[in-house]
């Protein structure tokens, strides 16, 4: 989600994330140092949705194909 990118880019303590210890903000540090750049990816391009969402059968098959997973 875009909120994850905002959290990584913005070094202030957010209400919902202030429980996360600073030593775990590796991604935020890397963004701050300019070593990585984050980019939003629309959900229809998210191959990982197959692992995290309930999908229609056709979408599941398409993502499975993109991952090169085959039925035996």
From TrEMBL:
Top-level taxonomic group: Eukaryota
Protein name, UniProt field: Copia protein
Species the sequence originates in: Phaseolus vulgaris
């Amino acid at each position: 989600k875009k909120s994850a990118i905002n959290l990584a880019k913005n070094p202030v303590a957010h209400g919902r994330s202030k429980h996360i210890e600073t030593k775990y903000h590796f991604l935020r540090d890397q963004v701050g140092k300019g070593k990585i750049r984050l980019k939003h990816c629309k959900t229809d391009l998210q191959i990982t949705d197959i692992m995290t969402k309930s999908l229609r059968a056709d979408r599941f098959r398409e993502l499975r194909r993109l991952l090169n997973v085959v039925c035996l």
